[in-house]
Each structure stands twice: as structure tokens, then as C-alpha cells.
Amino acid sequence: MATLRERRTYRDQVLRVLYEAVEGNRLLGITGAQLRRDLHVPEQDLAAACTYLAGEGLITVDWEPGNTPAMVTLTHQGIRNMEAEEEEQG
Q: Could you read off the pLDDT of 71-85 as tens digits, one per residue?
């Protein structure tokens, strides 16, 4: 099981990779397989990160059987959070 620090890192990485991949467009998403390839995150930890982020209203997830993310997209709130973070960084 991942530590709290690892779980937070996975969540941040999912949001960042998703935001960069879709360039802030809510109509675009990426597959769970692409997220796994890009992040090198264990499947169980990726599912947990996606479940958490979906619960926070930052992403939406279409699930495959076996609790695997099939398609992941940012919500409006998720885009706003990422844009605010981008503005803070400069």
C-alpha cells in the first residue's frame, strides 16, 4: 500500500499529466493505459488516485471492469485548479 506522500504525489501527477495532455480542454481525455504508461504508477494506486480525484470533483472517470480507469477527463473545477496553480508558479 502506498504511503500518504506517495498517494498525494500520484494524485498530483495524474492531474498534471492530464492537464498537459488535454491542454485545458474539458472535451478531451486520456486513457487509463496512457496514464499508467506516462506515470509508471501501479494499477491499484492509479485507480485509488482517480477515485479520490473524482470524489473531489476534479476529474471524471469511465471505469473498465476490474476497477481500471478506461478514460479520464478533467472537470471544469479541475481545469480551474490547474490554471490557478500555473498562475501561482509564474
A: 999 999 999 999 998
